[in-house]
Specification:
Elements: H1 2-5, E1 6-11, E2 14-19, H2 22-32, H3 36-44, H4 50-63, H5 68-78, H6 84-99, H7 112-115
Antiparallel strand pairs: 1-2
Length: about 130
């Protein structure tokens, strides 16, 4: 089920998996003083606090499998030294996946070609009275 709430992103020097499970969401809440939906609201509405951004990304990296010290170093290099808006975009995607979900394209029943099956046949043309 982690795939539904995880997101793979190109971040800094590579591609990383970000995942915020309940223990990490609780830690985010402790670090920011707000529940995850409130943090997501601030990110989406342009009211983000620095720790909303940094901690969403750092904890997402850890939840995705990065070692805590490596996650801290990545945030210092690719969040702290870059324009804040870039970090806000990443944090929004990471926290959004945790709260709203992130359905991978291949799991989308409406995307038949990705699922490996053929699309349903086209509907027959409507008959006309000539």
């Amino acid at each position: 089920m982690a795939g539904v709430t995880s997101v793979d992103l190109d971040f800094g020097d590579g591609k990383y998996t970000f995942h915020l499970d309940i223990p990490r969401l609780k830690e985010l809440q402790e670090k920011t003083g707000s529940g995850p939906p409130e943090v997501l609201s601030r990110l989406a509405e342009g009211r983000a606090r620095i720790d909303d951004v940094r901690e969403s990304i750092r904890l997402g990296l850890i939840g995705g499998g990065a070692a805590p010290l490596a996650a801290k170093a990545l945030v210092e290099r690719y969040v702290d030294e870059r324009p804040l808006i870039e970090g806000i975009a990443y944090a929004t995607l990471i926290l959004g996946a945790a709260i709203i979900g992130n359905k991978p394209p291949e799991a989308d029943p409406g995307n038949q070609s990705a699922a490996g099956s053929t699309p349903p046949p086209a509907a027959p043309p409507e008959a006309t009275d000539a």
